[in-house]
Amino acid sequence: MVSGPVTESPFVTPKNSIVTPPEPKLVLLLLSWLIPGYGFYRHGLRIRGLILFVLIESTFLVGVMFQGAVLVPEFNYRAEGFNLVAILTFVTQMFNGLAACLSAVADLTGGTVRLLPGNELNQWSDLGTFYLLVSGGLNYFALTGTYDHFYGVKSRSAATIAPTADTTG
């Protein structure tokens, strides 16, 4: 037997299950963008990560069922189709990560490759596109929440709070 104080490894949980070292911050944020809720899931908040994934992806799938699609806007400000609101909508929808990339493939290829059934001419497509916008916004907030919780203000404030003496009795 080894005598002396027992130190715990930072990569071993109390239940003796081994946890791999965390990936670099940028990789984790990129994966959290691609897969909603991944950052929380990776840091051990598995229920929160799964709830975020199900909530964001089900909202996206409702938008796809309504024939919504991520449409790439016209970026040339001299073109007739230029619209600042369409650009902001596109940026917000792209926060859906991998699902948004799959949806935008049809518009980028001129409709020759259609991975998701988006159709601008469908009577429900505007509502579906709005659902895609909402799910992109939700993933944006989940992504910023991941950063803030594990790397930002919340992580620093939790580390600097010192335990106080009990003054009640």
| Unreliable stretches | 8-13
**Which class do the helix and strand fractions yield?**
mainly alpha
User: What proportion strand?
Assistant: under 5%
Number of domains: 1
For the secondary structure, the number of strands is: 0
Shape: elongated
Average predicted confidence as pLDDT:
79
Biggest sheet architecture: none
End-to-end separation in angstroms reads 42 Å
Helical stretch tally: 7
Reading the helices and strands in chain order gives HHHHHHH
Describe the structure in your own words.
The chain is mainly α. It has one domain (25-154). Helix content is 53%, strand content 0%. The chain has 7 helices and no strands. The protein has helices at residues 25-34, 38-42, 46-65, 84-93, 98-108, 125-150, 153-160. Helix 4 packs across helix 6. The two termini are 42 Å apart. The model is unreliable at 8-13 (pLDDT under 50).
Provide a brief overview of the structure.
The chain is an all-alpha fold and 169 residues long.
Please name the defining characteristics of this protein.
53% helix; 169 residues; mainly alpha
Please outline the helices and strands.
Elements: H1 25-34, H2 38-42, H3 46-65, H4 84-93, H5 98-108, H6 125-150, H7 153-160
Helix pairs in contact: 3-6, 4-6
